[in-house]
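User: Batch of two.

Assistant: Item 1 of 2:
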Amino acid sequence: MLRPVPLQLVSESDDGEIVRRCVDGDRAAQRALFERERRRVHATLFRILGSNQHIDDLMQDVFVSVFRSLHAFRGESSLATWIDRCAVRAAFKHIGKRRPSHHLELVAETVAATDPSAEQRALDREAVRRLYETLERLEPKQRLAFTLCAIDDRPVSEAATLMNATVVATKARLWRARRHVLKCAKADPVLAAYLVGASARAHGAREEESS
């Protein structure tokens, strides 16, 4: 009786080999690549879209696109970056297709991890909800630039690569998105306080990394 081959996760250093095996139709390699990349893809979609009922479907769309087009991967960038581009394209297509009318739920990963009081957690939840409602009114490319740089904390150059745009265009989109968010925050004390706190936490995290 044949036993199933155990699933083995692959590291980024194995990109060339895993791509070759996936293109050859090796199901074990495809499962291993999916397991390696799925959490990061989910996190990227999550930060761009907020808590969205379509994320699981979009995850499937991303990996269907990945496996259908892996034969075109030439290694100009890392495989992880190439897969991130697929995720960003899927998010962009979803944003441009429709404007959800339902209220967004909490995006848990953006709330402070310092275990604040119940009252502060409630304020954070409400602020995040308001932030994503504000982002719903942005032009899709501006929203992508903002979420990739301001929420996912990617460098502008990396965001430009993922969006297949120039650094100059990405900076312009990010600037317009920030201006829109800050304008909305001026009329919304809850959102304004959250943005100030998020900026301070991000600055503190960068100082810790550099020390």
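Item 2 of 2:
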Amino acid sequence: MQRLILAATLVCFAAGGAFAHGDDSHFTQRQEVTVRTTKVNGNVYLLQGRGGNVGAIVGMDGILIIDDDYKVVSEKLREALKALGASSPKFILNTHWHGDHTEGNFAFGGESVIVAHENVRKRMLNPPVLFGQTTPAYPSIALPVITYAESITLHFDGDEIRAVHYPSGHTDGDTVVFFKKANVVHLGDDFFAGQFPFVDLDSGGSVQGLINNVGHLITQIPADAKLIPGHGPLSTLDDLKSFRQTLIETSQIVQDAMKKKQTLDEIKKAGLPEKYKEWGSGFIKTDSWIEIVYRSYSKK
């Protein structure tokens, strides 16, 4: 029942493109898709289309990208990459399996080497139900061909690019990518800048795991690093600290209510303090976040 409630509260988000790939019919009357390019630091760029944020490093070796948005964005993403120097990347790093970060694999997979954590490939081959929708398995052309259990390092365009797995956070296949020379970190959906995150409990995600992972990352990231979140604007380490503190405080409110034997409906009705209002203005609304927290801690 709780899964059905959560799916219902997120139905508007799912109708807008959700995280999973599949039928593109809802895009037939879509607004014009655009991709905005922002230089981050050194030769690293942020590209923002319809889905998750795309990172790119550009140089003599070509282009490597982190995630690749929805299928519907692929043509515009290709144009944006061409403006940077090449129409297709040599490498694609997927931070997790959700379609708003990986559907571009369908367009670029035949031209690029796709790299991801081993759980990402497993999820793509047998996707969990997401927002009440059954997701088709990814075709071979869109699958990662290089996988890793803990981390992998690529030496590309004069930088050391390290992809590190952080378990049981947003999903069970999350990767954070560190550009050592450029001093940039792409956190995928372990970081939703200024908004409540989606935690995919059915893909091995955990609210407490996300809090723990972000806490560890804060100790690893240089104070002056530029951060690319999975969703939201270019950020700083202070923004990441604010994100984690909000997760801690709001999840504690829900846990305290659970200890008092309050029902999910009662906790939703009480809501969260006014200071968290803006955090619920993204595609994960306050009610949805409360339910994610409730479900996550109910699993203990």
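The longest strand covers residues 159-165.
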